[in-house]
């Protein structure tokens, strides 16, 4: 997000400098014009990233196998839990609680091993 804000700031600064009139006075943009420019830049960048975000698995992390996404509350098929709004985190918390309950049931036997997903959280 910081990258997007700094990009918008630089675009506004560039436009202010390059749009000088004949007296070499910088033409000032209104706040609404800068917001519109930033919104256009962010929308364009988001549209570029959508295909990458729609892929199953964890993009950008080599060596980890892709996980098939589960249907979210809105019925979107194939969206990984990490990209669902709140659904993935709630699912991981439930898995942790289930795992802790299993560990309490075993009580003195052996230390319960953490699942691969639980290890990723730490």
Question: In a few lines, what is going on in this structure?
Answer:
It contains 4 helices and no strands. With about 120 residues, the chain is mainly α.
Describe the structure.
The protein is mainly α and 122 residues long. It has a domain at 1-36. The chain is built from 4 helices and no strands. It is elongated. The model has no long low-confidence stretch (mean pLDDT 61).
Biggest β-sheet description: none
| Poorly predicted runs | none
**Shape by Cα distribution:** elongated
Give the DSSP E fraction (strand runs of 2 or more residues): under 5%
Radius of gyration: 24 Å
| Termini gap | 24 Å
Helix share, percent:
40-55%
Order of helices and strands: HHHH
The count of β-strands is 0
What structural class is derived from the secondary structure elements? Answer: mainly alpha
Q: Mean pLDDT across all residues, rounded?
A: 61
Count up the helices: 4
């Amino acid at each position: 997000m910081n990258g997007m804000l700094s990009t918008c700031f630089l675009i506004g600064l560039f436009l202010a400098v390059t749009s000088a009139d004949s007296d070499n006075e910088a033409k000032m943009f209104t706040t609404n014009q800068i917001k519109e420019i930033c919104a256009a830049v962010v929308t364009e960048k988001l549209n570029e990233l959508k295909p990458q975000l729609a892929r199953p698995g964890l993009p950008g992390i080599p060596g980890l196998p892709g996980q098939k996404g589960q249907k979210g509350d809105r019925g979107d098929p194939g969206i990984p839990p990490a990209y669902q709004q709140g659904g993935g985190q709630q699912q991981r918390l439930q898995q942790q609680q289930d795992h802790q309950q299993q560990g309490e049931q075993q009580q003195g036997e052996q230390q319960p091993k953490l699942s691969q997903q639980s290890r990723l959280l730490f």
